Amino acid sequence: xxxxxxxxxxxxxxxxxxxxxxxxxxxxxxxxxxxxxxxxxxxxxxxxxxxxxxxxxxxxxxxxxxxxxxxxxxxxxxxxxxxxxxxxxxxxxxxxxxxxxxxxxxxxxxxxxxxxxxxxxxxxxxxxxxxxxxxxxxxxxxxxxxxxxxxxxxxxxxxxxxxxxxxxxxxxxxxxxxxxxxxxxxxxxxxxxxxxxxxxxxxxxxxxxxxxxxxxxxxxxxxxxxxxxxxxxxxxxxxxxxxxxxxxxxxxxxxxxxxxxxxxxxxxxxxxxxxxxxxxxxxxxxxxxxxxxxxxxxxxxxxxxxxxxxxxxxxxxxxxxxxxxxxxxxxxxxxxxxxxxxxxxxxxxxxxxxxxxxxxxxxxxxxxxxxxxxxxxxxxxxxxxxxxxxxxxxxxxxxxxxxxxxxxxxxxxxxxxxxxxxxxxxxxxxxxxxxxxxxxxxxxxxxxxxxxxxxxxxxxxxxxxxxxxxxxxxxxxxxxxxxxxxxxxxxx
Length: 492
Description:
There is one protein chain. The protein folds into two domains: 31-251, Rossmann fold (3-Layer(aba) Sandwich), CATH 3.40.50; 283-486, no CATH class. It is 53% helix and 10% strand. The termini are far apart. It has helices at 4-29, 71-79, 106-125, 140-154, 189-200, 236-250, 261-280, 294-311, 325-343, 353-374, 382-405, 413-433, 444-453, 455-466, 468-486; strands spanning 33-36, 44-48, 56-60, 83-87, 133-138, 162-165, 179-185, 211-214, 217-224.
């Protein structure tokens, strides 16, 4: 190992980040009873203080989310004495049922999600003491919970109040919901505008960030500073505002400070990624890399990006019960296969088995445990396991070719950047040339970006130490897993 003191210092620093952030994140759930609630195929978790008798709050996540991503609200409301029920919508998290219906129509997918939400509301009302119920949701869920609240009101069982975070629901009218708080992030310009219009339905001269009331209808808009669409889920200002609004509706009072959970999440994942570097340095050094001539690099990068979407433009076969997954697998397989053929095996030498094992333990085990416990679902339901196995047929050649193309992580920055941009452009081209089913391939693009930022950096360090083959194989296995657990399952 070169520079042992430097590696030791980095390792101790990263370990310190992990220990501090885990301690502070675990403190968020300290003293709470957290247990599953049986409700058919829908995964539901109850968060409460032992013996709590307070009102119930049903919490719903946004598109491609899960119960874990809403924990900033779940923990704090439970600590304030509320009984919180958070659940995974169809097709997301660990819910085994694919999202059904036409996602572009109110009478399609929305109807199924409303029905699922109302089943959770019924479970909340069945808690001991038959508590009053409030609803809180983010992004896509704001439309669902508002429509579900309307159906509850029409059925004679109205909910007490609604908190809509990053809302864009067209179901909001001048007189419904009668009690509504809309929270937006400072960087969500369009959604802030929507929130203002919702307040102006009640009082035309309503100002952003104020409470307005007229004819028995109350609306409050809140802007959480310095955050966007995801950051608003961890903003202390947003969580405090939601808790205060619920307290007002139920005649309660909560004063406990809200810690910046998002900061500790970033700290934790930074520590996990950084600690991989000195650990990788302990592995036996593998084969070196062979620089690729510029001409071969450009051909292997650009030709598959152009050919793949054109070659698959007419593909209309989908033997699976869910959309996009089959095409995505075929696309990555052809893209990576063409690159490997053009590279003619350059850079892919002897496989370093211990390096692959390390990546799976660290990149999936440690990283995945932290993701699932503190941020978003990372463990597959049995129904997703088969999809992960299928996606390996595409992700393995795709990531092996990527590792070779980037010269085991040693290529110049412009080459690494061009390789990634070409892959994204190829997927974008597939969406542009495809049918409506192909449109959902676009969901893979943000997953790829996040993957390259996290596991991709670990993979680059691993490739530079042990060779492109080990990193490509490990990254291929990890990418199939990540896509398999995070992409929403949409019924074909």
